[in-house]
## 1
Amino acid sequence: MKGQPAARQSSIPATRQSSIPATRQSSIPATRQSSIVATRQSSIVVRPQPMDSATYTASSRLQAAGLIRAQELLEQCAAMVPLPPPARPVTIADYGAANGYNSLLPIGAAIAAVRARTRPDHAIVVTHTDVAANDFTALFSTLNEDQDSYLAADGAAFATALGRSFYQQILPSDSITLGWSSWATHWLSRLPAAIGDHIHISHSTDEPARRAFTRQAAEDWHDFVAFRGRELAPGGRLVVLTLAVDDDGRAGFGPLMDALHDGLGKLAAEGVITAAEVTRMAIPTVGRAEEELRAPFAPSGRFEGLSVEHLETFDAEDRFWMRYQHDGDAEKLGARWAGFARAAVFPTLTTALDGGTADPRATEFSERLQATVAAGLARSPAPMSIPLAVLVLAKQHRPE
Ligand SMILES: C[S@@+](CC[C@H](N)C(=O)[O-])C[C@H]1O[C@@H](n2cnc3c(N)ncnc32)[C@H](O)[C@@H]1O
């Protein structure tokens, strides 16, 4: 397993029961069935140049991800959040860490901001969380080996990892000083419905499916926020970077989604996959509009002790398009996006083959779909919109 990229994770348990303790159940369903049918992937689009690339710089690493703004907010939170006394560690949770690569700079910056307020030996413990099927070996390699690892930079920083879905309580109540989650909460806990006419719900006119996705998105966001409300310490802060919606109300990546949809149709016409398999294939992600992100907090502005301290939406830069504008190479543009799609969503699509990920056609399916998507995007080069939202959620202080 060592060295295997997070983008090659395979199966996620089909069904997971999350039992909520009897205490403090106000907003969270007592028992929630969360069937995770998707394979979660590390986002290549947020992973810029490889570490040894001549063009690698710390700023491109963050800029590409739309992470710079979120990191600034996390640093601001780290500079003012209440800290526990020295005998107790400062605790930072990273929700949906994947291989940890994109967490290093933001978490490292937060640690530096906290450290400016503490003695050098005040322990800071970071817990990187993800689903159980995540490639935690890759995460530990990143933490141990990456030149930007906070473990090398701070002698009293410690890393731990946790393999459970963030749609349940996974850390002790009132224990987390700072929370961070980037590019993760737009993955739904399950695929709520088959989508009749497209690979992605925001391109579909299938009304029952759209309603099912909207409901699931609301429920998952409600649960994510509620459980973080329990876990954050009084006065703690959580910064979330997640997919928003563009001016058309869609979750972005339009040309790629269409190329995937067209590619699947082509593969079905060529007999590589069946029409029934195409119908089962869907990407269980959503973009959320500002009012959807604020919904759990309505009408009082408070929810599970949390309030929205900051919310902004913006478009992340499409770094593949920027490179295309520089080199004019449409084939490379198509190949880059097809490579991203293969890493990010093909394993999810493959689960819909009759034989699942073990189907004997799985490799051929991925290779042909990648080639078809690359060719389609190269034929009509177009920029992708990448709408993002960043929020800071604040947990109320203990009453004096
Ligand atoms: C696109 S990656 C983002 C990784 C990293 N945070 C970044 O910014 O690049 C999304 C991660 O969220 C994780 N994820 C999705 N749903 C999750 C859940 N219910 N619980 C925990 N992690 C989840 C996926 O497994 C995946 O590793």
Note: The chain has 13 helices and nine strands.
## 2
Amino acid sequence: MGLEAALPQDNILTAQLNKLINWTRKYSIWPMPFATACCGIELMCTASSRYDLARFGAEVFRFSPRQSDLLIIAGRVTNKMMPVVQRIYTQICEPKWVISMGACASTGGVFDTYAVVQGIDQFVPVDVYVPGCPPRPEMLREGIMTIQRMIEADNLPRKKDGKRRPLNIALEPNYEPGTQPVDVTVGAT
Ligand code: SF4
């Protein structure tokens, strides 16, 4: 049953255009995955039926930056790959958001080497840092919901040139796994 079935056909709804835009934008985030390592597996898992990112309207992963508005960088990024990340970021239309997923993307993690970028925020603006090595799907989901809350509140800080400033929100680590949606049964008949 859709909204039109619940309301009389000849009624008129009035709303602020800004709120309508934010409402639709909140539930139609199209992520662009940039997954380089083990965090990418958790990223894929977040979109699976078990965690069902579709409930939040953010399951339509696009592999073209021109069709995306949320860049999720999952895993370590090498110096060699950073220009590619920057190019992808600039190709995404405004308004756009960036999630840094996992310790490696945010800080280089255990890879304190000359070849690995020690924090992607040195090169692209990051809105939400998702902690963990790797973060569980629930943590990534919380990161996406954080961005949704900011969209709903229309809390999009803009510079004078119209571009957004990064939100710079770091999620609290959560050591408690969430309630599992269904019991895992292996080999059950
Ligand atoms: S944070 Fe951990 S799980 Fe994620 S890419 Fe780095 S080593 Fe792998």
Note: The radius of gyration is 18 Å.
